[in-house]
Write a structure and sequence with these properties.
With 410 residues, the protein is mostly helical. The chain is built from 15 helices and no strands. The chain is elongated and about 85 Å long. The chain starts with a helix and ends with a helix.
Length: 410
């Protein structure tokens, strides 16, 4: 009887386990439906309070602050509903193996963000909000909710822009932290994160902003945006990646003037210059080296014209004076009546001489680059080639001894 009872107990356990699993699978769609309704209600409230906040006509500061507080509270409740949906619905669907590939990927991304909480809380805070908002926006597009998207996308683009600004500020703070950036490798890692952040924004949010066209400076970045888009198809080599990032930095000077401070953008440009020089020195053939060199000249012009010409505060006054001399020469070339070909040639010579000055005493790799530059200056006719010749000096010692003897005798 005991054995029979034991067998029955085992059977009942398996039976109830199967029932529990079945019930869970049946309840998941219901849970998804409830969470979906909750998200829809919170989303509608966010859109309403957002429009009230940005379109308010009240002159009093207190009224504006109340509207802002109401809007921010609505955003918090909306994000909490989205977070609950991920943890209660998507997580359970993945656990019971009823999730789609998209849902599995979404949960994986969610945990990649959550793991930042212990080490990089500020980054976690911004990236989690970005993830939740993007998740809902993609769900609306997948379900063809065009009417809702039309009302939602202005809020979405505006909120996401602020989150990207916060994330870029956070990276800027990290670069200034000597504990975090204790070596060149850790700095390069943050530069890469900045470029990846800018790229995500330009791909997902900037098209909405360009469509709205609410800010005049959006018209100024269309050419840079088109240039960036040309790199979105096909596999990119190192040179293409540098050129794409150069376009991103160009747009960032308009889009994130305050969020990505000039000193940080300067460091990003210098990082690209180092990569480009390295690419030139390690090119497998003359053709690729020439292509990398042309990109370097374009990058030097971008760096000097779009960034350094707007720089006001310089840590070293002598550097400021040197740049003023460079800028005066550049302006002189730019305003001259010469052909565009001659102007380009003179600018190239100016860039090379300026970079030679900066690279002096920077190590063996810099010395190789300086030698490369000097050869280019010879090709451009801006430097004379010194011939390798020598004279025989075998009788110097003998002459010197005779002179010493004569001096002693005298």
């Amino acid at each position: 009887m005991a054995e029979k009872g034991l067998r029955l107990a085992k059977t009942d356990g398996a039976f109830f386990s199967r029932i529990t699993t079945t019930i869970t699978k049946l309840l998941i769609p219901t849970k998804v439906g409830i969470n979906g309704m909750l998200i829809s209600m919170k989303r509608s409230n966010v859109i309403k309070t957002y429009n009230e906040y940005i379109n308010h006509n009240e002159k009093s500061k207190e009224s504006k602050e109340n509207l802002e507080k109401k809007y921010e509270n609505a955003v918090v409740l909306y994000l909490e509903a989205l977070d609950k949906y991920v943890m209660e619905s998507i997580y359970k669907k993945v656990k019971t193996k009823t999730a789609t590939a998209y849902e599995e990927n979404a949960l994986s991304r969610y945990y990649n963000v959550v793991h930042l909480k212990e080490t990089q809380y500020a980054q976690y805070k911004y990236e989690k909000q970005q993830f939740l908002l993007e998740l809902d926006y993609e769900a609306l597009k997948a379900n063809s909710k065009d009417k809702i998207i039309e009302k939602y996308k202005t809020f979405y683009a505006d909120r996401m822009t602020n989150l990207y600004k916060g994330l870029l500020k956070n990276y800027s703070v990290q670069l200034a932290d000597k504990v975090i950036c204790d070596n060149a490798e850790s700095k390069e890692k943050i530069y890469n994160e900045i470029f990846e952040c800018l790229e995500r924004y330009v791909i997902s949010i900037l098209p909405i902003k360009l469509e709205e066209g609410t800010q005049p400076y959006y018209r100024d970045i269309v050419s840079e945006y088109d240039k960036f888009n040309s790199f979105m198809a096909g596999k990119l080599d190192k040179r293409d990646t540098i050129e794409k990032r150069m376009a991103l930095l160009g747009m960032s000077r308009k889009l994130f003037t305050h969020s990505l401070p000039l000193v940080v953008a300067e460091q990003c440009y210098e990082s690209l210059l180092r990569e480009n020089r390295h690419l030139i020195l390690n090119s497998p053939n003359i053709k690729k080296q020439d292509m990398a060199y042309k990109l370097l000249i374009a990058l030097m012009e971008d760096y000097n014209v779009k960034l350094l010409s707007t720089k006001i505060y310089w840590d070293v006054p002598a550097d400021r004076e040197e740049y003023k001399k460079f800028w005066d020469k550049y302006q002189e070339i730019e305003k001259s009546n010469e052909s565009e070909e001659n102007k380009a040639k003179k600018k190239e010579i100016l860039f090379l001489r300026n970079d030679i000055r900066k690279l002096q005493g920077e190590g063996s790799q810099a010395d190789y680059m300086i030698k490369f530059y000097r050869n280019k200056l010879i090709e451009l006719g801006a430097r004379k080639q010194v011939k390798n010749s020598y004279a025989s000096c075998s009788n110097i010692k003998l002459i010197t001894k005779k002179r010493r003897r004569s001096m002693k005798n005298n």
